[in-house]
Amino acid sequence: MSDRYNPQAIESKWQGRWEADGLYRTDLGDASSKFYYLTMLPYTSGDLHIGHWYSYIGPDIQARYRRMQGQNVFFPIGFDAFGLPAENAAIRQGIHPHKWTYDNIDRMRGQFRSMGAMFDWSKEAITSDPEYYRWNQWFFLKLFEKGLAYRALAPTNWCPSCQTVLANEQVLADGTCERCHTAVTHRDLEQWFLRITNYADELLDFSGLQWPERVITMQRNWIGRSEGVEITFGLDIPGVDQKELRVFTTRPDTVFGVTFMVLAPEHPLVPLITTPDRRAEVEAYVEQARRQTEIERLSTEHEKTGVFTGAYCHNPLSDEDVPIWIADYALLWYGTGAVMGVPAHDQRDFEFAERYGFPVRVVIAPADWDREPLDAAYLESGVMVNSAQFNGFPSAEGKDAVADYVESKGSGRRTVSYRLRDWLISRQRYWGTPIPIVHCPTCGAVPVPEEQLPVILPQDAEFKPTGESPLARHEGFVNTPCPRCQEPARRESDTMDTFMDSNWYFIRYLSPQYDQGPVDPDLAQTWLPVDQYTGGTEHAVMHLLYARFFWKVIRDLGVTLGSEPFIRLFNQGQILGPDGQRMSKSRGNVIAPDEQVARHGADTFRCYLMFIGPWDEGGPFGLEGIAGIWRWLNRAWSLILSEPNFGAAEPATTRNLRRLTHQTIRKATECLEGFHFNTLIAALMEMTNGLIRAREAGPVDRAAWDEATGGLLLMLAPLAPHIAEELWARTGRPYSVHQQAWPSWDADLAREDEVTLVVQVNGKLRDRIQVGADIDEARAKELALASPQVRKHIDNQAVQRVIYVPGKLVNVVVVR
RNA sequence: GCCGAAGUGGCGGAAUUGGCAGACGCGGCAGACUCAAAAUCUGCUGAGGGGUAACCUUCGUGCCGGUUCGAGUCCGGCCUUCGGCACCA
């Protein structure tokens, strides 16, 4: 056995041993002090890069620490395996997406093992396995039964050259296709939606969650709840049955300032109310708006344009008629698809009015209103003016007064609008979960019976994009009898958004082989919700919102598992290349973890990643400092294996050694509780250096030394599991260090006997005095005032007062 | 534009409730070991000024101001960077 630290030899040895022993397999039957530690599952992109290491090492350290704290920790892993990148890579390389994905999983498993992470591989789940996506389909059927899944015509991004629908992320900022750079247009297709908007208010309730405020804010903004009033304007157009035009506003106090009305171009009233002389222009405008992608239409630089429909509507409060225009700044899906134009108090309306010459009528004014023409909308507070019986109401109260009035007159009601839209889950792509629906000419959309699940994704589909879902051209897949009438029918050929897969993977982990339902109900009851979740902020909205939605849907299916799926959430930061840019092959700034593991071992690389800065901040990554960690582990190695001069140690020496041990345990415990891995490592380095000094200084007490070195190894174990295990074994301690209890600290032993009393004159540091830790105020002040340094700076001036901070500081204040 | 976070040595970064600014590490300099180098170990290392010296002294946490005996930390106003949202009526 070599005495040199040789990570390559010990790491694979211990990984094999741990695996053979099932050291990290969790007994889910034992629910006492259970701790479900979840970390976001990786996409099967190919190789684990530095970002993966960074985001999985932190949770691994935490999971190991919790386990040493005596908790029964479940720390599973799986693969998010469906999705576009597999298809794109497959198209590019001529490999089947299935092969591409599963080859990648094999490679990634090996890389995960080289990390030394304590994942429980026996509970692995892969979302592209039929045993997994079968339950996606099962959930879909339940949602369909409950009316929470529905089909509707929806606009999509369409690339006329690739003949395919594009996700918003695939449309470049200039409105062209990311692949062929053709201008993307609109196309309306029948798509499946999930009614997440039914849960909007519930999703705004974050009570009981220990989540970063930032994430909560992002979700709140994403849902975008606005309280307002729907006001019914009158329509009196010959030959039009519709007599009402409903408009949503959050500013009912400005209703007397309406000088025009704007409808979204797609608003269903538009073709009805447009007068014959305006028809050609209106139709041209609608056509042009339809051609634009939503991205273009919503871009900030977009100038406000519109056309007059020729029709007017009646303001029930001011008793005035105002012209109805259409403009693409009105969005069909928000509110009622109509905007009341109040140019004096809304900047968009102001710009529109300036361009088309509508009057700007001030109806909210501050006390010192000077009646000059506005050069921008007035958005500040004030009282209502030019508003008939409401004149004089402060804006806030005016909102209520107008709302009360319209409600009492039956011309409106208080209501709430959301920015959140229903979740579009249809994808016209191959590599995803088939939607379990059959379209029958007589019965319509018929759900596939539960016992026929899973609807298997066929291996032999031609998946190159041609304009419709690849499955639509697979005759064997598409042609099927209608489950209801048995007549020939066609299967739904769209697949599901992959966010469906990640909605509930953490539930599946508990029983990935279970075939009576998505999860073994007993395990679900004991192990859910997740105690701690970690992952990147890029999932602050989509994944984390969809998963919360799904959790509440599951509750409404009759299974209550707690109010929220993830009690505690912590976000790690993102690792960038040395140049501060995102790491990518095309930029050439990628640092491969495998090379670093080969060079210094996994333990050094793990510690280095955690040492470079606060884990929740991330930042540019360079290898400059890795030598420091390598030296430290080598120092620790030789320290632990060295034999100090055991003998009659001075009591003070022993006391100092034990103090170092217990102070470090206290510090390390605090650091782990707060995810401060960088300062945890700093504390262990200090302890290592302190022990080396103690060993050199003279005789050392054997028991105190064993306590110190044992404690150091225990604290090192979560960070650097291999070297800790090796040294634990080499020092004759019983296997395994990872099954030991986290050390506890003793407050008396950690206490300092002496403290440095800082002495200031007028807040400036003038002296430092070593004193006993139990010094009292009088004595401290006396010593401070006696200090020659202090006397020099007082310089015969009158001492005004003396401030004392117990055990820390004396500040002498003299008149200036 | 709005919301949020952050600005500390040559570099990554530390710093309980306001109380020694710069822990820990990198890099640099000097020394030890060595025939030599690498590795390793030891010491020094925020900037300026003074002193042969231990030491003394001024300045210093993006900028300006404030509160306080005392501010990296609290308050007001700017600047910069990074995230998120962005015609949401």
What does this protein look like?
The protein is an alpha+beta fold and 816 residues long. The termini are far apart. The chain binds one RNA strand of 89 nucleotides through helix 7, strand 9, strand 13, helix 11 and helix 20.
- Looking at the structure, what is the overall shape? globular
Question: Which spans have pLDDT < 50 for at least 5 consecutive residues?
Answer: none
Strand content: 15-25%
- By secondary-structure content and strand pairing, the structural class works out as alpha+beta
Number of helical segments with 4 or more residues: 27
Separation of termini?
Answer: 71 Å
* Biggest sheet details: 7 strands, mixed
Q: Rg from C-alpha positions? A: 34 Å
Mean pLDDT over the residues: 91
Q: How much helical structure, as a percent, in the residues?
A: 25-40%
Counted beta strands: 31
Provide the fold topology.
Blueprint: H1 7-21, E1 34-39, H2 50-68, E2 72-74, E3 78-79, H3 84-93, H4 97-115, E4 125-126, H5 130-145, E5 149-159, E6 164-166, E7 185-194, H6 200-203, H7 213-223, E8 225-235, E9 244-249, E10 260-263, H8 270-273, H9 279-291, H10 294-297, E11 306-315, E12 320-327, E13 338-341, H11 347-356, E14 364-365, E15 383-384, H12 395-409, E16 412-418, E17 423-424, E18 426-427, E19 437-440, E20 444-447, H13 475-478, E21 479-481, E22 488-491, E23 495-496, H14 499-502, H15 505-508, H16 521-527, E24 530-536, H17 542-556, E25 566-572, E26 574-576, H18 593-600, H19 602-611, E27 618-620, H20 626-641, H21 651-673, H22 677-697, H23 702-716, H24 721-730, H25 747-750, E28 754-761, E29 764-772, H26 777-786, H27 788-794, E30 799-805, E31 809-814
Parallel strand pairs: 1-2, 1-24, 3-4, 10-12, 24-25, 26-27, 28-31
Antiparallel strand pairs: 5-6, 5-7, 7-17, 8-9, 8-11, 8-16, 10-13, 11-12, 14-15, 18-23, 19-20, 19-22, 21-22, 28-29, 30-31
Helix pairs in contact: 1-24, 3-4, 18-19, 19-20, 20-22, 21-22, 21-23, 22-23, 23-24
This protein binds one RNA strand of 89 nucleotides through helix 7, strand 9, strand 13, helix 11 and helix 20.
